[in-house]
Specification:
Shape: elongated
Number of strands: 22
Order of helices and strands: EEHEEEHEEEEHEEEEEHEHEEEEHEEEH
Distance between the termini: 39 Å
Strand order of the largest sheet: 8-7-17-18-19-16-20
Strand content: 15-25%
Radius of gyration: 22 Å
Oligomer: single chain
Largest sheet: 7 strands, mixed
Helix content: 10-25%
Length: about 350
């Protein structure tokens, strides 16, 4: 098989929020920008399940707040619609296994979280429609190699030649999935190996229902449990409140179970709160991010949430100033959030602008 050779000024690895937003920013520079993505779809860790019958079910990034200024600005630029996450004035609270769950009052929320009316992937779709970059899907980068005056990225059958390469691959995964010639500095590798991967430990679960049976004076769609296996869950009905769901997190230690086993654990817990009606769901969706080969690689040692997110070493440029690490984990502010992904893209854009103008 003949190897294809493709030229660009800037090659972006990853068609998630960081990569697409960076391409969106680069439009004004008049440079040839190309994006390669290992998956068959866009979005990275933004993953919305939509079937037209149930509400959009968010299996990845979901919420954001007023303080996420870059995201709020982009939402306005793209004309996207958002709404406040419903918490209500009470929650189901289960502090210990030896006592029954209870209904507790919630204080007024002066820092609400928001969701996208049309699903979080609406920001991905909008960015993809705005950019001019060619996007190559199903392209798994295996090697990055510094050349005399270029830098090359190799897949199984294609070599991408560029002046600059920007990787949005989670740092821990990058270190364990891509070969570098010459090797990246050991100091950098020691940090990437212990950098927490946003969403990597998460199991997102969602149950769609015909009716919001939890939306009564005696119950709630907001759940907090120290017992689990679901530590938190929320009303995930749509903006018009005519399509209903519950969505939350399952304890990440259950990643190795079968889907049916996880579902039964969820049913057993929710039955304590809602009774047998909870088994009348019309759809169950889950995403075990730890099992996604394009998101997660097992850590060598124990890594804490957000560990090394925004580390100063990610603000440097490598391989003769031609290789840049980007993505939510690399951002000095709001690392591990959609806001961090956007700020990372802006940081990289500013660097590229100074280099190429």
């Amino acid at each position: 098989m003949n190897e294809k050779r493709i030229e660009s000024d800037i090659l972006i690895i990853g068609a998630g929020l960081t990569g697409l937003y960076l391409s969106y920013l680069l439009r004004e520079m008049g440079r040839k920008v190309m994006i390669v993505e290992a998956r068959s779809i866009l979005g990275g860790r933004i993953l919305t399940k939509e079937d037209g019958i149930n509400p959009p079910l968010e299996m990845g990034a979901t919420w954001f707040g007023y303080e996420h200024s870059h995201l709020q600005t982009l939402i306005s630029e793209l004309g996207l619609r958002i709404f406040e996450q419903k918490l209500g004035d009470r929650a189901i609270y289960e502090p210990i296994s030896s006592s029954p769950p209870q209904i507790v009052k919630l204080p007024p929320n002066d820092r609400p979280s928001f969701r996208f009316i049309d699903g979080t992937d609406s920001i991905i779709k909008s960015l993809a429609n705005e950019i001019e970059s060619k996007i190559h899907l199903n392209q798994i980068i295996q090697k990055v190699e510094l050349d005399t005056d270029r830098i090359n990225a190799h897949t199984i059958n294609t070599t991408y030649h560029a002046k600059f390469i920007v990787s949005t691959i989670p740092p821990a995964l990058l270190q364990n999935s891509v070969e570098f010639i010459p090797e990246l500095p050991e100091k950098l590798l020691s940090v990437t190996a212990s950098t927490h991967t946003w969403m990597g430990d998460s199991i997102k679960v969602a149950l769609a229902y015909e009716d919001a049976f939890w939306d009564t004076e005696e119950l709630s769609g907001t759940i907090f449990s120290s017992v689990g296996p679901i530590p938190e869950m929320y009303d995930h009905s749509n903006y018009d409140h005519n399509k209903h769901a519950l969505m939350g997190f399952l304890n990440g230690t259950y990643f190795s179970l079968q889907k049916s086993e996880r579902l039964e654990l969820i049913m057993t817990q929710l039955e304590k709160y809602y009774g047998p009606q909870v088994r009348g769901f019309v759809s169950y969706e889950e995403k075990v991010w730890r099992n996604d080969p394009f998101t997660f690689f097992p850590y060598r040692d124990h890594v804490l949430p957000h560990q090394n997110n925004g580390h100063a070493i990610y603000q440097d440029v490598y391989l003769d100033n031609r290789f840049i690490l980007a993505g939510s984990e690399t951002c000095a502010d709001f690392g591990g959030y959609m806001e961090g992904a956007l700020r990372s893209a802006r940081f990289v854009f500013d660097h590229l602008y100074s280099c190429m103008n």
